Amino acid sequence: TQHFLARIRQHEGLGAFLATNADVSLAQAKAADARLAAGERTPLLGVPLAHKDVFVTRDFVTTAGSKMLENYRSPFDATVVSKLGVTNGAGMVTLGKLNCDEFAMGSGNENSAYKPVQNPWDLSRIPGGSSGGSATAVAARLAPAATGTDTGGSIRQPASMSSLTGIKPTYGRCSRYGMVAFASSLDQAGPMARSALDCALLLSSMAGPDLDRDSTSLDMPATDYATDLIATSAQGTLASGLKGLRIGLPKQFFSSGCAPDVLTAVRAALAELEKLGAVLVEVDLPLTELSIPVYYVIAPAEASSNLSRYDGVRYGHRASAYTDLNDMYKKSRSEGFGDEATRRIMIGTYVLSHGYYDAYYLKAQKIRRLIAEDFQKAFAQCDIIAGPVSPTVAWKIGEKGDDPVANYLADIYTLSSSLAGLPGMSVPAGFGAHGMPVGLQLIGNYFKEAQLLGTAHQFQ
Ligand code: GLN
Prior knowledge:
This protein has a domain at 2-232: Amidase signature (AS) domain (Amidase signature (AS) enzymes). The two termini are 27 Å apart. Helices cover 38% and strands 13% of the residues. The longest helix is centred in the last third of the chain and has 23 residues, at 357-379. Strands 4-6-5-10-11-9-7-8 form an eight-stranded mixed beta sheet. The radius of gyration is 21 Å and the shape is globular. The protein has helices at residues 2-10, 22-37, 79-84, 132-139, 156-161, 196-206, 225-234, 260-275, 291-306, 325-336, 339-352, 357-379, 404-409, 412-420, 449-459; strands at 17-19, 48-52, 93-98, 146-150, 165-168, 188-193, 246-250, 279-283, 384-388, 424-431, 437-444. It is an alpha/beta fold and 460 residues long. The mean pLDDT is 96. The protein has 15 helices and eleven strands. The structure holds glutamine. Glutamine is lined by residues 104-107, 130, 149-154, 182, 299, 411.
């Protein structure tokens, strides 16, 4: 813990952390020591980690990257935080809270109300987003692991751009209780770490039902993903473990929309998987392109509803001067929300409004269903779907300027599986243009996290 706290201080300029509290972290480390002294031997006991700042924490301020929640202190810990934590959980020590796009809305961490995050592979570039602080913290070794959230790619894309392994489990696998809500039908928590094995250890502790607090959490017991992985390696199946695994390559993921350097790295990774025994088959996900407009109707719709709770009354920013209640709402919200959050509130309110609901929101929901059905057709032909995570390597900070659509388009390969609620992960696949990391995306059918982690582990 001391080692990582020192590194965090040393590399503050990367912008990865929004809050630290050495006293709290060291006290947690002592508590882990006490459990160790009492004879406990569990794999995560005493291991430090840091949380994306959308998980509420009692001991650290939670801002969700927004001025709206500046200095906000939650009276409770998110379920994922307590499941990993030292009091009643796996025994991990919290190093602090990680920078992210405001309310997790973004693809480059440039929408954080506080500061951008630098990618340690090239300080002039984004680390990916919205879990950009998580990516940089782990990639720069400021933390051994981090939590992230993925609504439309925010674990997989930053993992890919920072050469990390990250997994977004099946929707509902981890409790959303205490995750600052963005788009509730899509939001999902997951780990970001250096390997599939580390992710397996973390996910085993993060996952599991929490039905009293999150009615959408899956009523399925948590799986011990890590023991399975260790068992397969110990049996010496590293070379033969993927024998017969059918990997589906959606032709829409390998089109001209993807940069050639990314495609080259992804194809090289697929060739490795083939050497390990996997069989590559072509599959069809014809609605891939529609996932962008569909997601950017549904996610803002849900966001506009979720963000209505920030009214300056109960918590969050309140304007200092106002004439009446309505003026207080207006000023507090205008001052508290940044441009991207405001844009999504406006789009979301529009597509949900009377007269437009059927044309936009309902239509998007119907296409969402068709996208999910296409995945099931594809899974009739393969076990896992693979492709790129992002069409390009990490771009330069500021390069996309104020163009929101340029950011939205970069989500093309991650949105469809999110809309379908499927698990997906990113595994380092090598390097592309400018020596920047490229990730291989693996998408599994529902509840197939173990298969994804196992495949990634064999590959690593
Ligand atoms: N880039 C997507 C968005 O801006 C996804 C973000 C996320 O997964 N939190 O909404």
